[in-house]
């Protein structure tokens, strides 16, 4: 991956962006888009939309959601401890002992998720040490009491685990919230490749960093309604199955570093899906296939059903440990994702018909 692109990726995945609090990452994305897009705009949901060739006859929408899972302060005890709820799907046991940051207008407040030491569980009536529930966890910011805590934080403040960007071996990297800020990254990188390469796309390309996907695909629903695309491609994370305990018979045989995942199923327009596969073969870009026999849990789901219907496709970046503070992806897979999308859009016929055949 080019150094400039890698630096952008680090900025995107280390900025806080729990659903409903995407402002910091939206600013980074909008500034990057402004360097090569014909137009950059925002909508009332906070979606960031970068446009290339807006006068093209076919409108193609790329959607990668820029929100991540996180938490929110729901109560401050009289002792000054913070209680919280999940924003999106989080397994409570993964939060125990984690450093966190609480965000508000006054600045970032550090804290830690506390837990009684294992030595003291023997005094409990239930010696099994059951996994904690979310409402049983608390954050310690070092406050003396509630009054002291309220000088720094407030109910409604957003929280993330304080996890950075960690390079691993063989071009793998770990961070929190790759789901799905790598999708938003791939959208921006595709726009950059199209703007800097040749030939220019003949279709209008709308690259969208969508918001609030983790709470029900909300940003994609509203942005697709406003853009009125002829076709839409969602870029998200997919489950890798190359590590212990994952059943390939359920997930499929998906490995890190072997290319993006192209989905096939009822959520996928067969014409657009075939075009992605044909482009990957023609450009010698590695790819993997995923069977998706029902509605996907991605932005492709709502794009497909917008207005009178949109031809949709889904490309996923293989990922280990989704919805944990140590999600892992391959930089090679990321590069190949934007490379494939750019190749497809650069050669797409502005009169392309996406209507499925009878066969």
Please write out the topology.
Elements: H1 3-14, H2 23-33, E1 39-42, E2 48-52, E3 59-65, E4 70-76, E5 82-87, E6 99-104, E7 107-114, E8 138-140, H3 146-149, E9 158-161, E10 166-167, E11 172-175, H4 178-196, E12 204-210, H5 218-227, E13 231-239, H6 248-251, E14 261-264, H7 270-282, E15 288-291, H8 299-304, E16 311-319, E17 327-330, H9 331-346
Parallel strand pairs: 3-12, 3-13, 13-16, 14-15
Antiparallel strand pairs: 1-2, 2-12, 4-5, 4-9, 6-7, 6-9, 7-8, 10-11, 11-17, 14-16
Would you give an account of this structure?
- The chain is about 25% helix and about 25% strand.
- With about 350 residues, the chain is α+β, with helices and mostly antiparallel strands.
- The chain has 2 domains: about 240 residues, Zn peptidases (Aminopeptidase), CATH 3.40.630.10; about 90 residues, Elongation Factor Tu (Ef-tu), domain 3 (Beta Barrel), CATH 2.40.30.
- The strands form 3 sheets. It has an 8-stranded mixed beta sheet, sandwiched between helices. It has a 6-stranded antiparallel beta sheet with strand order 5-4-9-6-7-8, with no helix packed on it. A 3-stranded antiparallel beta sheet has the order 10-11-17.
- Strand 1 and strand 2 form a beta hairpin.
- It is globular, with a radius of gyration of 21 Å.
- The two termini are about 40 Å apart.
């Amino acid at each position: 991956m080019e150094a400039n692109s890698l630096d952008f990726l680090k900025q995107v995945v280390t900025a806080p962006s729990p659903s409903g609090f995407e402002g910091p990452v939206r600013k980074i994305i909008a500034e990057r888009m402004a360097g090569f897009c014909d137009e950059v705009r925002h909508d009332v949901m906070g979606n960031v939309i970068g446009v290339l060739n807006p006068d093209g006859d076919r409108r193609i929408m790329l959607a990668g959601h820029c929100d991540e899972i996180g938490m929110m302060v729901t109560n401050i005890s009289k002792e000054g401890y913070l209680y919280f709820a999940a924003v999106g799907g989080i397994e409570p046991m993964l939060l125990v002992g984690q450093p966190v940051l609480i965000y508000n207008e006054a600045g970032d407040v550090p804290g830690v998720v506390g837990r009684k030491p294992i030595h003291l569980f023997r005094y409990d009536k239930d010696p099994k040490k059951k996994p904690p529930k979310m409402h049983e966890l608390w954050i310690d910011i070092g406050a003396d009491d509630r009054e002291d805590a309220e000088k720094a934080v407030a109910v409604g403040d957003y929280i993330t685990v304080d996890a950075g960007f960690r390079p691993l071996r063989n071009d793998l990297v770990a961070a929190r919230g790759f789901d799905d800020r790598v999708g938003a990254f791939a959208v921006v990188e595709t726009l950059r490749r199209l703007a800097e390469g040749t030939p220019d796309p003949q279709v209008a390309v709308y690259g969208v960093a969508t918001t609030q996907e983790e709470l029900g695909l909300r940003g994609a629903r509203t942005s697709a309604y406003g853009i009125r695309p002829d076709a839409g491609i969602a870029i998200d994370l997919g489950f890798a199955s190359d590590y212990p305990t994952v059943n390939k018979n359920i997930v499929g045989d998906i490995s890190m570093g072997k290319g993006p995942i192209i989905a096939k199923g009822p959520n996928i327009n067969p014409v657009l899906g075939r075009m992605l596969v044909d482009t990957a073969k023609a450009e010698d870009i590695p790819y993997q296939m995923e069977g998706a026999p029902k509605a996907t849990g991605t932005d492709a789901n709502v794009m497909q059903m917008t207005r009178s219907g949109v031809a949709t496709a889904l490309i996923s970046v293989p990922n280990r440990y989704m919805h944990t503070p140590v999600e892992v992806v391959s930089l090679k897979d990321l590069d190949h994702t934007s490379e494939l999308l750019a190749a497809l859009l650069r050669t797409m016929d502005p009169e392309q018909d996406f209507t499925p055949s009878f066969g």
